[in-house]
Amino acid sequence: MKLQTILEHLEKQGIDVEFLGDSSHQVSQVSGLSEASPEHISFLSDTKRMGELEASQAGAVILKPEHRDITSTNRLLVSNPYYVYALTAQLLNPLNLEPGIHRKAVIDPSATIGESVSIGPNAVIGANVSIGDGVSIGAGTVIESGAQIGHRSYLAPNVTVMHDCVIGDDVRMESGCVIGGEGFGFANEKGEWHHIPQIGRVVIGDRVYIGNNSTINRGAINDTVIESNCIIDCLVQIGHNVKLGYGTAIASQAGIAGSTEIGQYCVLAGQAGVTGHVTIADQSHFGAKSGVTGHIREAGSYSGFPAVPTAEWQRTMVRMKGLTKMAQKVKRLESELEEIKSQLENN
Fold first, then answer.
1. String of b and e for 48-86 (b: at least 16 CB within 10 Å)?
2. Residue 25 is a catalytic residue
3. What's the mean pLDDT in 259-264?
4. Which residue range or ranges hold the Mannose-1-phosphate guanyltransferase C-terminal domain (predicted)?
5. Tell me: the pLDDT tens digits for 119-158?
6. What kind of architecture, by CATH, is found in domain 100-311?
7. Sequence spans of domains, the chain
8. Which CATH fold would you assign to the domain 3-92?
């Protein structure tokens, strides 16, 4: 692909690009700075890698305008190189899925299938399902009755969308996702557990990403809601009636208990956990393995278990590192005190 094609694509996306070099130069793939060769396009977003940029053999580099003089190769000067790298990687690595329905797919006659849809072998489409234009459904994926899939969404092989759930436009779900499974609802009578049917749905907005083997449970009565522009990593569990605010990001192995409301642009790092029935303020960030046990009413960074402001948690960790020395010192002081008491008693 000529660099000119990439430049035209970026301009269509509204990116302000200043280009220096030969726009007829061709690249075939993106690459890291150190590994790149002339047929690659790379990027610089971390100033710690300036040395790699100087030595790079990349045929083109995406970087900020203030770094234009560090290299003489073809340069795309932009305000956010990492974002432009993402757009370029998408352009060079399209899905290239051919529209068509495999003969081994099972589709209920009442289902509505849009235009240019790809449905793989052994996929099962239930009654009254609605599938938008340009959707791709992988092999073995199951979409149960009444579910709705928005335009251009991609469901990898072996995804399950349970009955009546709603998926927005441009959603990507990787293999093993289960959307709309039964929420963890049980009533106890004299030590015996009795299942409560979960009659809500899962409603997912537009441009949401859900990684491999993540599960989002349907609501007990009201819906579980994932707002647009959320990104959810692999192996994440989201309980029934959770509401996830716009633009929130959740890393692998995080778990969110039922009826929790998480605000917009929040971040949960790996293995973070949130108890049920709490509310979390917009733009709250939680470190790895942090545990949220109560309401978070102010935006900020939180860490530890139970989660507290990160600065407070860091001070506590510093003190904990000194506990052994402190205990030894206390033990010595106790011995000295006993010795003084003994002397006083003898006198």
1. ebeebbeebebbbbbbeeebeebbebbbbbbeebeebbe
2. no
3. 98
4. 104-181
5. 999 999 999 999 999 999 999 999 999 999 999 999 999 9
6. 3 Solenoid (2.160)
7. 3-92, 100-311
8. 3.40.1390
